[in-house]
Design a protein that fits this description.
The structure holds two protein chains of two kinds.
Chain A (H helix, E strand, L loop, with lengths): L2 E5 L2 E5 L4 E8 L3 E9 L6 E6 L5 E4 L2 E5 L3 E6 L8 E9 L5 E3 L3 E6 L1
Chain B lengths: L3 E4 L2 E4 L5 E7 L5 E7 L6 E6 L6 E2 L6 E5 L5 E5 L8 E8 L10 E2 L3 E5 L1
Parallel strand pairs in B: 2-11
Antiparallel strand pairs in B: 1-3, 3-8, 4-5, 4-9, 5-6, 7-8, 9-10, 9-11
The chains are: A mainly beta, B mainly beta.
């Protein structure tokens, strides 16, 4: 069965304290892995797409990496405005169906 | 930049009532999607439309119907609402469907409560 598991469920950091979020997946024929940010009361906001193992993408304090079994979202020197739920989704071979994880709720305290 | 617009933002229904959720995108995307998001569960696909004139079932289609009105608009209808359909509903769109791995872009959701 195709699955996407995100850990931890929740993470509390102090401002400036770097950390990583994990997304592990078991899908056949990965075509892409997507990271989204979701603020309370809002829809998911697209951050990155990773297509193949070894690929990395960066945006401001965020860096996403991909291996054959998992992806990491590294947050360097986070700020309170980085507080949000981060969602991971994978696209399997075939039609553009996304399988979403349940997300990691990140809280960055000043 | 409107992107994906969903209406209404909030709605309360009684069991058995019907309702249509509206979604429109202004990005000239070909593919559109309806998801539901429930606490402790990932976003689940209800229905999708790969292109104008086509619709297909997703993971949880029971109790719902959809209409791809034109390239811009994709509506979701609950014919006889049930408490189990209480959820947050998101519409999304992407440039292409099929075998493309383009990202999906989401609206801000409709929060639906069924009493």
């Amino acid at each position: 069965e195709d699955q996407v598991t995100q850990s931890p469920e929740a993470l509390r950091l102090q401002e400036g304290e770097s950390s990583s979020l994990n997304c592990s997946y078991t899908v056949s024929g990965l075509r892409g892995l997507f990271w989204y940010r979701q603020d309370p009361g809002k829809g998911p906001e697209f951050l990155f797409t990773l297509y193949s193992a070894g690929e990395e993408k960066e945006k401001e304090r965020l860096k996403a990496t991909l291996t054959k079994k998992e992806s990491f979202l590294h947050i360097t020197a986070p700020k309170p405005e980085d507080s949000a739920t981060y969602l991971c989704a994978v696209q399997m071979a075939g039609f553009q169906k996304l399988v979403f994880g349940t997300g990691t709720r990140l809280l960055v305290s000043p | 930049n409107a992107g994906v617009t969903q209406t209404p933002k909030f709605q309360v229904l009684k069991t058995g009532q019907s309702m249509t959720l509206q979604c429109a995108q202004d990005m000239n995307h070909n593919s559109m999607y309806w998801y539901r998001q429930d606490p402790g569960m990932g976003l689940r696909l209800i229905y999708y439309s790969a292109s104008e004139g086509t619709t297909d079932k997703g993971e949880v289609p029971n109790g719902y119907n959809v209409s791809r009105l034109n390239k811009r608009e994709f509506s979701l209808r609950l014919e006889s609402a049930a408490p189990s359909q209480t959820s947050v509903y998101f519409c999304a769109s992407s440039v292409t469907g099929g075998y493309s791995n383009q990202p999906q872009h989401f609206g801000d959701g409709t929060r639906l409560s069924i009493l």
